[in-house]
Write a structure and sequence with these properties.
The protein is mainly alpha-helical. It has one domain. Helices cover 67% and strands 0% of the residues. It contains three helices and no strands. The mean pLDDT is 85.
């Protein structure tokens, strides 16, 4: 059975979203949720196999992600 989700976004983001009516935002949200859940599952598996804490692994993954995307 499908469930509904209400999402609140800032005005500037909403304005940009409205410019792209061809994008199925519900599909985007579902995919983002799937990706995040997969990342959390990997994080949990890694945390169970190391002496690092989940917080340490998450901090490392954020740094790695920024390096990969070349963000500051």
């Amino acid at each position: 059975m499908p469930n509904n989700l209400t999402v609140t976004v800032e005005d500037d983001l909403w304005s940009e979203m409205k410019k792209h009516s061809e994008i199925r935002l519900s599909a985007v949200m579902k995919e983002a949720a799937r990706e995040k859940l997969q990342a959390l599952a990997i994080l949990k598996r890694l945390a169970s196999k190391t002496s690092l804490s989940e917080k340490d692994i998450e901090a490392f993954s954020v740094k790695l992600g920024k390096r990969i995307t070349r963000r500051p």
